[in-house]
Design the sequence.
């Protein structure tokens, strides 16, 4: 299957409807609408490759949704390098109690995110911020800062920590794969300097979905 093939020729994954309902509940229509946006405009705009559509739910949507139980109720969340909205939009859809800021430096992706937020009816609790994480002054800071496929922990600490609220309780959640333990070890100097504790957590959106590896960095430990 060629990466340059027209999006209409890519076979979109059909998820188990019981799993979708179990994970997203009443927000099922919204997450399905977002999946359609990713499988069409996301590919047309080059934010996702056609090869991703046959595994859109398992590799991307459920992978991101697995983080939902790690976020406190009513938390403010900053998604750094949001790209196509992964994981930020998935978290906003699955957790209506959250206030989510999508931070993205590339204008094309910002436009994509703005259109998606409007079409999904999320304007009241999702904002799109154009720029790099280090350019923003968060004021009181966010409860949680998330990232996915943005960079190694050695860099993420510097980018994300200034966005986390001061005091205990603030955290950074970085979606990682098999490299999680090695990245934590390599970032030991940065973590010690920032006084962050690191924990590698394996979570699932549902017992029937694949596990997601998250590195959780927390203040005050």
Sequence:
């Amino acid at each position: 299957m060629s990466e340059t093939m027209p999006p209409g020729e890519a076979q979109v994954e059909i998820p188990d409807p019981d799993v979708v309902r179990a994970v997203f509940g009443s927000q099922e229509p919204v997450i399905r609408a977002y999946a359609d946006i990713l499988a069409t405009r996301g590919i047309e705009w080059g934010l996702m490759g056609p090869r991703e559509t046959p595994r859109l739910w398992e590799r991307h949507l459920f992978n991101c949704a697995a983080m939902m139980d790690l976020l406190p109720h009513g938390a403010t969340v900053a998604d750094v390098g949001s790209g196509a909205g992964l994981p930020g939009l998935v978290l906003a859809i699955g957790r209506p109690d959250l206030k989510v800021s999508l931070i993205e430096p590339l204008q094309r992706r910002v436009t994509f995110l703005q259109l998606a937020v409007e079409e999904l009816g999320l304007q009241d609790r999702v904002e799109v911020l154009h720029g790099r994480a280090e350019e923003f002054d968060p004021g009181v800071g966010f409860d949680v800062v998330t990232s996915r496929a943005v960079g190694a922990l050695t860099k993420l600490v510097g980018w994300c920590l200034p966005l986390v609220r001061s005091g205990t309780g603030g955290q950074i959640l970085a979606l990682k794969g098999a490299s999680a333990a090695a990245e934590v070890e390599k970032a030991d100097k940065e973590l010690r300097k920032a006084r962050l504790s690191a924990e590698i957590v394996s979570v699932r959106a549902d017992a029937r979905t694949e596990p997601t590896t998250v590195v959780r960095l927390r203040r005050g430990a």
Summary: The longest helix spans residues 107-119. Residues 1-9 have pLDDT under 50 and may be disordered.
